[in-house]
Amino acid sequence: MNGVTCRGLCAERGGVQVLHDVDLVVGAGEWVSLVGPNGSGKTTLLHSLAGLVSADGDVQVAGVTPHRSGRRAVARAVALMPQRPIVPEGVTVRELIHLGRTPHIPRFGSETPRDREIVERVITRLELEDFASRLATALSGGELQRVVLARALAQQPQVLLLDEPTSALDIGHQQQVLDLVDSMRREGELTVIAAMHDLTSASQYGERLVLLDRGRIVADGLPADVLTVERIAEIYGARVEVLDRPAGRAVLPLRDRPEPVESQEP
Ligand SMILES: Nc1ncnc2c1ncn2[C@@H]1O[C@H](COP(=O)(O)OP(=O)(O)OP(=O)(O)O)[C@@H](O)[C@H]1O
Prior knowledge:
Elements: E1 4-13, E2 16-26, E3 31-35, H1 42-49, E4 55-61, H2 71-77, E5 78-81, H3 93-98, H4 113-125, H5 141-154, E6 159-163, H6 171-188, E7 191-195, H7 199-205, E8 208-213, E9 216-221, H8 223-226, H9 229-236, E10 240-245, E11 248-253
Parallel strand pairs: 3-7, 3-8, 5-6, 6-7
Antiparallel strand pairs: 1-2, 1-4, 8-9, 10-11
């Protein structure tokens, strides 16, 4: 089973419980967008699914139990594209992407031509050829974000966890990256869970939206059912208009225009 099941998931950060009894079942090949205000627990949930944060409850990700299975087995099943990547000094972009192959290389073994072919294919698909020989620490924030996605894709996971994957990208690269992930999902039964602040992208790429608030799932369903004007006002305290387009729901923030200031006679 290549999807994700978690039941009664509870997790703490810094001694404080931040996830409360999360139940989530994601079928193989689904794209679920995870939305919610700052601090609602999206990163903690993704890290729990990747086995990086200890959690209570029953969690299965692509047939492995992240907290109990070995690191290599977990890394073959699930890849996380982190919100704040840590980049080792002195490593080129190509070397960083090659790290994604590590869980597939046997202990005491070395890379095969197939590993190198997978890395080169990912570099081509993300149009990273011009950066491949540069130091990863010398990239702009958006360039690095695409390289970190490339490393996660080179890992060839069954479940891909994306934490704000487009936060540093210009609008063209946002579409390129999300379209690429979506086409890989359609081609290969990749299961995607993506934490996203951009509610329009979350709606248009996610077949299903899960809304977290203060560590609890408060809505789970079709984007148009989850992202209503009233719910966005209640959970985010935001004023928005929603527009239904063939590509899906778009969420447009609205400025509350201040009253014009009366001009005062000198
Ligand atoms: N290492 C930590 N130590 C203590 N508290 C933490 C730690 N990491 C996260 N938290 C707290 O846990 C809560 C959930 O954080 P989390 O990063 O999961 O939220 P999020 O929904 O991803 O937020 P954002 O949208 O701002 O990225 C927040 O209150 C945060 O301050």
